[in-house]
Amino acid sequence: MENQNILPADKVIQDLLPQKFGLRGKIWTATLIIICLIGAYAYFLQLKNGLVVTNMGDYVSWGIYISNFVFFVAISLVGSLITAIFRLTDVKWRTPLTRISEMIAVSAITFASLIIIVDMGRPERLVNIFAHGRLQSPIVWDVIVITTYFCISLFLLYITLLPDIRIMIKAKEMVGKPFAKLYKWLGSFWKGTEAQEKIRNRSITILCITIIPVAFCIHTVTSWLFATTYRPGWDSTNFGAYFISGAFLVGAGGVVVAMYVFRKVYKLEQYITDMHFEKMGRILVLLALIYLYFNVNEYLVPAFKMKKSEEDHLTALFVGRYAPLFWFCILVGMIIPIIISLFKKGRRPLPMFIAGVMVVVGAWFKRYLIVTPTLLHPFLPMHDAPEKYKHYFPSWQEWAIAMGSLAGALLIITLLARIFPVISIYKTLTDENETAQK
Amino acid sequence: MKLLKNRSGLILMTLLLAGIICDAQDSTNEKKELQLNITYYLPQNNVPYLLVTTKTKVERKFIGVKDLKVNVYLNSTSDSDLIQSFQSNATGEERIYIPPSFKRVWDAASSFTFIAVAAANKEFDETKGEVQVTKAKIEVDTSRTDETKNVTVTVKTLQKGEWIPAKDVELKIAVKRSIGNLPIGDEETYTTDSTGSVTAEFKRDSLLGDSKGNFILVARTEDNETLGNIFAEKNVSWGVAPTIDNSFNNRSLWATSSKTPIWLVFMASSIVIGVWGTLIYLVFQLFKIKKLGKAS
């Protein structure tokens, strides 16, 4: 693709077909499964003993689970950024990135849904949201919009996969038996006729148009869960835009990391080229600058006024007990990635991978900072509260469940990459043909 | 010599101990001080009553003394003048009405002395309390011009069978509220003139009344040396009837799910139907693709 080299169709198919796990893949998958199992055991303990196994209490009632939830919702927005926005704006170089971003979106939104159930002490009561939910409550909006976004993301992944499934059915010798039945069940009806293609293309366009407002809704509603609660740090009219800008940044960072890993593992240098990192680097700079701008708004304006009721919260962030984490998030999550990506040399694969990791790690801790310090600094002072209510550090069960969910999301991406091509074969071939015709 | 020294030390210690023991005995025999108060009340120029209180100071606080025998007399402590005898309860308060047998004495005179005598017991010596009262009556009248509302209170005392205006009587004029009384104007108290009257302007506009806008005006003397506590009330319709806020049952953002605002139901439903309608349409398109595939 780079330098306009036209690749033969057979080579494209061979390169992009899902590959069996090598030793590293098996170790990676086994590690993820073990972390998931530890998380599942911790959740079993939580189910058995109740939320008492966590360190959440009367003040910090939203701990690491909700931080994790916000993180998952944020990263899931990448599906709408790369697939929908790039498609609707006809970004030509998007092809190798769309499938990756769709896989990330599906896995992230799956675990966003699950982690919110984990946060409930009595998960069986989830049904009450549907039976007795109040439409006035942002919690209900969140449940509706997450379900909707999950369905759209899954549908988008599936419908874009159809031509590739046909290719995989045809190339069953190369793909191997394990998933042959699955491919057949999923897409044996796809013949690639003009009529089918027309409907598929129209459906993808409709989905891309639909997913953008839904994606905005999902993270705006998540931000409103905070902003509609009167607390220091959350009492902002800017929260929707602040959250969405952060979501696009972490989504882009996640895609950059995944691009680098898939390129290395599956040897996709001819498909995910330096040009893709260069372009994503530019996008990352823009998104990081926008998010930094919102951060300046969110922290500098209240700090300038330094209202008495917000002073403790802001001081804890700037120079207090949360200062190391706060400045880590600002520097590592935004400023350093901006500096790296500003320079042409920084937009090469490895520096971009490092910048992407920084963005994702910074984003995870940023969500922790959004949730916990605010809950520890309510407007009403904590009078006669037990000492342990005044501090929060997650219990091992909380850590295990949170890490288990992160591992679970990575496991889904890993399994999807094992079953389906991480780059659309059909679209790559189409692009190659178009390039050849030119 | 050594023995003598030891003995003198022993004697000194014995004397000291004896002194301490005697002092302790004296302090245990010391009785507490009882406060026996008797207060006269005349509500609405009707049946008067007396409030007898038995209290003592414990750790800087006055608490009621119970199980104390108290006799209440009219004018003298002779048995024939005994109004009532009672055993004090835990609150240390007892309300006493003058029995009908004292009607002749009551009607014949215009001033009286009420005497309360608490019998001695292990804790208290015999204690006496008394209050002198002149018969009086109090009346509340109201007048209203376009802009002002006035309350006129008249106090009269009975002297030689005649009701004479009571001069220089300090009064409180207020509106009766749930917990306490609210003064009708800026003044805390008002004083009657030579006609026994005082007129006060009512300055509490827009005061919440009952369901019809009525409230009760009350004029009273408080622990007056000669009149005791006399008070009169008058119902006036100078208040504002409360408007009951029935919004609790209206559709609102804080109501139950069945009371969701229509605009929210409409907006949310439109969005949900719009998005899910699109998704359902796309599912049909998928079936169409499937059908086309089977056909080919």
Question: What's the quick description here?
Answer:
The complex is a heterodimer of chains A (438) and B (296). Chain A has 438 residues and is mainly α. Chain A contains 17 helices and no strands.
Task: Write the topology of this structure.
The complex is a heterodimer of chains A (438) and B (296).
Chain A: H1 9-16, H2 23-49, H3 64-76, H4 78-88, H5 95-118, H6 126-132, H7 138-170, H8 172-175, H9 180-187, H10 194-227, H11 239-265, H12 274-305, H13 308-318, H14 323-342, H15 349-375, H16 396-419, H17 425-437
Helix pairs in contact in A: 1-17, 2-16, 3-5, 3-10, 3-11, 3-15, 4-5, 4-10, 4-11, 5-7, 5-11, 5-16, 7-9, 7-10, 10-11, 11-12, 11-15, 12-14, 13-14, 14-15
Chain B: H1 2-29, E1 35-43, E2 49-58, E3 61-64, E4 69-74, E5 82-87, E6 93-97, H2 103-108, E7 111-118, E8 127-134, E9 136-144, E10 149-159, E11 162-165, E12 170-176, E13 181-183, E14 190-191, E15 197-202, E16 215-220, E17 229-236, H3 262-295
Parallel strand pairs in B: 1-17
Antiparallel strand pairs in B: 1-2, 2-3, 2-6, 4-5, 4-7, 7-8, 9-10, 10-11, 10-15, 12-13, 12-14, 12-16, 16-17
Please provide a written account of the structure:
The complex is a heterodimer of chains A (438) and B (296). Chain A is mainly α. Chain A contains 17 helices and no strands. Chain A has helices at 9-16, 23-49, 64-76, 78-88, 95-118, 126-132, 138-170, 172-175, 180-187, 194-227, 239-265, 274-305, 308-318, 323-342, 349-375, 396-419, 425-437. The longest helix of chain A has 34 residues, at 194-227. Chain B is elongated and about 125 Å long. Chain B starts with a helix and ends with a helix. The mean pLDDT of chain B is 88. The interface between A and B is medium-sized, with 29 and 28 residues.
